Amino acid sequence: MADNEVGRDECLLEVRGLTKIFGELRANDGIDLEIRSSEIHALLGENGAGKSTLVKMLFGSLEPTSGQILWKGNRVRISSPGQARRLGIGMVFQHFSLFEALTVAENIALSMDGNVSIENISEQAATLSREYGLPLDPHAHVADLSVGERQRIEIVRTLLQNPELIILDEPTSVLTPQEADRLFETLEKIKSEGRSVLYISHRLEEVQRICDRATVLRHGELTGDCDPRTETPASLARMMVGSEVKTVSNTGGKVSDDILIEAKNLSAPARTPFAVALKDINLVVRGGEVIGIAGVAGNGQSELFDVLSGEELAQNRADIRICGTDAGRLGISARRLLGAGFVPEERHGHAAVSSMTLSENMVLARHKSDSDAFLTGGPLKIIRYNAVLDASERIIKEMDVRMSGEDPDASSLSGGNLQKYIVGRELDRKPAAIVVNQPTWGVDAGAASRIRQALIDLAEAGSAVVVISQDLDEIFEVATSIAVINEGRLSAAEPASQMTLERIGLLMGGIHGEDTPVAETGLEPAHAH
Ligand SMILES: Nc1ncnc2c1ncn2[C@@H]1O[C@H](COP(=O)(O)OP(=O)(O)OP(=O)(O)O)[C@@H](O)[C@H]1O
């Protein structure tokens, strides 16, 4: 073995007393961590615990305030991601750094050293994606891909650099159960090749399933180091949160006769060659109902969200009705004025402008729907910043948003805390109708149950709620009825109490009959509720 190689079970990466201070906040406070070779090591902690800060220091995108990093026993200063890659550390971020106008292969080319032709990269990427079970078309444009597909690009481009340690920040939050299973096989393969994985996840069951060890952070400090297989999800959650996580209560309120969201024979052509056309969608959501829309990524979820929210206009006014008004040709602000709220899937760049403060983001989203509260009268329409800050503080308190500073930039919030703020910003208006796309992506168990409970409470208070989600546990937790989107078609909503995972699997495969073998859908009967 060469001097710089490490054997199985030996220490690949060691961190001693690593500390990062932002202003007054100790985001990481004296963290110790050891990652052995051929190990899948979980990094756990609630939103804002300091996980991303730690891994950004390991990947050279943040400089530690103090502490040491040792790579194969040698002290190193990782001053840039390029240097981390040269050492053998690869990272798949929670937020992707992809150029939307470029193809998959062109994006990969940008992160490679040297002059490799696009054809060569396309071939390598196609081979790797086949080998590791991560289907990807190298010639597709990123703009046309779903979040799940974008994540595959990041994984493939990391693997192309042949790293010894791969850091994955919440890789399964956008994946379906089948895609997640495939990823776990990929990770087992990576491990069997002698590489290691540092795995950030809020899903404790999967941590128990695939991780050999776990390090737990809370408020920037190390609170535990354990073998997750000998713990329970509840004991791990306790280590993370310091108390029990509240379970969601869904008693199912009274459904009114008022139809507050409706799509009638809604069709929309695919906007690009890679987008999904919506085909004859019918959806009726009454006050008091939560309709969960399940589906495998890339089956028209974002197209449906865009046309329901008014980001894209429908072909006819009557294709969509919101709170009793034909709204198909109205834009997003006009639909908000009818009493609707919308939470898109991507929090950075879509739901929030990262470089703007929370209050500025509030003005951007609600200046039309809340102009009476947020703007002065008369022609000048000056912003009443005190009113905006009051509303912002109300949301921060209500949703338990944790952050450093009083009105920070959206970019400085941890992913889950920004998500709580964005959902809270819509719920604060008490919309009569709301459509949310992937409401708890990257959100810890405690915060996810808070967001889900808030959606259920809104419905119980009489609003109509549509939750588009790939997380079937979430769908079962919140929904009163479930529909499935497949290749741009939406199945009829069925009562959640009568739905099973097998039935959803059949509908996800576009099969509506009762007698199709479950095996064809890729969903195991053992998953049934
Ligand atoms: N650039 C920054 N400036 C100021 N504060 C920051 C910055 N980056 C992170 N923080 C703060 O540091 C703390 C830790 O954030 P971090 O993103 O590391 O948490 P996390 O555990 O990864 O959370 P999540 O699970 O939500 O992604 C948070 O309170 C966050 O607001």
From TrEMBL:
Annotated Gene3D superfamilies: P-loop containing nucleotide triphosphate hydrolases
Main localization of the protein described in the UniProt heading: membrane
One term of GO molecular function: ATP hydrolysis activity
Subcellular localization(s) per the UniProt record: Cell membrane
InterPro entries: AAA+_ATPase, ABC_carbohydrate_import_ATPase, ABC_transporter-like_ATP-bd, ABC_transporter-like_CS, P-loop_NTPase
Keywords attached to this entry: ATP-binding, Cell membrane, Membrane, Nucleotide-binding, Repeat, Sugar transport, Translocase, Transport
GO CC field: plasma membrane
Top-level division of the source organism's lineage: Bacteria
Domain ABC transporter span(s) in chain numbering: 13-244, 261-512
Coiled coil: none
Topological category with respect to the lipid bilayer: Peripheral membrane protein
Pfam families from the UniProt entry: ABC_tran
Family: Belongs to the ABC transporter superfamily.
Name used for this protein in its record: ABC transporter ATP-binding protein
Organism: Hoeflea prorocentri
